[in-house]
């Protein structure tokens, strides 16, 4: 009888563990799709779509070390002088946690800014948190890489 109880407890622990793995994999996939949606929204200068992806307390650290809050970041994307033509994530790795997912990766961006063409390649780290059932980016930072 004792062995049956031990096996029953073990089965519950394994089932709960598998449920968490499946849930975390689902969270990982969802956040990676949101990363790609962010790129498309930024490329199309869709401020409403980007706003919906960012937490109210969002903090962005640019490649030059400048920190921006959510409103400042949205204003920088919507600036009339900023015209991205391509924003592509080359690689992305997502590490899910209980109520957070950290995404690291590399990206390429091409466009014009202040009338001059630019090409950027960089690394980024984004921290996504689950808030009221929705995944929102709470923090993002980027570092430019050499060509």
Quick summary:
The chain is an alpha+beta fold and 147 residues long. The chain is built from three helices and six strands.
Key structural traits:
46% strand, 6-stranded mixed sheet, alpha+beta, 3 helices, 147 residues, 39% helix, Nuclear Transport Factor 2, Chain: A
The N- and C-terminal alpha carbons lie at a distance of 67 Å
Order of helices and strands: HHEEHEEEE
| Radius of gyration (Å) | 20 Å
* Total beta strand runs: 6
Assign a percent range to the helix content. Answer: 25-40%
Which strands sit side by side, in order, in the main sheet? Answer: 2-1-6-5-4-3
Report the β-strand fraction as a percent range. over 45%
Q: Overall 3D geometry?
A: globular
What does the average pLDDT come to? 88
- Counted by DSSP, the helix tally is 3
For the record, the CATH architecture stands as: Roll
Largest sheet geometry: 6 strands, mixed
Low-confidence stretches: 4-20
- Number of domains as seen in the coordinates: 1
**SS class:** alpha+beta
Fill in the CATH topology.
Nuclear Transport Factor 2, Chain: A
CATH top level label: Alpha Beta
How would you describe what is shown here?
- The protein is α+β, with helices and mostly antiparallel strands.
- It has one domain: Roll (Nuclear Transport Factor 2, Chain: A).
- Helix content is 39%, strand content 46%.
- The chain has 3 helices and 6 strands.
- Strands 2-1-6-5-4-3 form a 6-stranded mixed β-sheet.
Annotate the secondary structure layout:
Elements: H1 2-43, H2 47-53, E1 54-61, E2 67-69, H3 70-78, E3 82-96, E4 100-113, E5 116-131, E6 134-144
Helix pairs in contact: 1-2
């Amino acid at each position: 009888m004792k062995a049956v109880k031990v096996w029953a407890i073990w089965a519950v622990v394994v089932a709960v563990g598998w449920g968490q793995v499946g849930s975390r994999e689902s969270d990982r996939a969802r956040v990676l799709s949101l990363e790609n949606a962010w790129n498309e929204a930024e490329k199309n200068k869709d401020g409403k779509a980007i706003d919906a992806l960012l937490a109210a307390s969002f903090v962005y650290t640019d490649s030059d070390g400048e920190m921006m809050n959510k409103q400042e970041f949205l204003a920088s994307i919507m600036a009339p002088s900023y015209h991205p033509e391509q924003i592509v994530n080359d690689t992305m790795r997502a590490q899910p946690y209980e109520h957070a997912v950290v995404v690291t990766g590399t990206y390429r961006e091409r466009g014009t800014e202040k009338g001059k063409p630019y090409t950027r390649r960089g690394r980024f780290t984004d921290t996504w948190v689950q808030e009221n059932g929705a995944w929102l980016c709470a923090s993002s930072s980027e570092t430019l890489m050499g060509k």
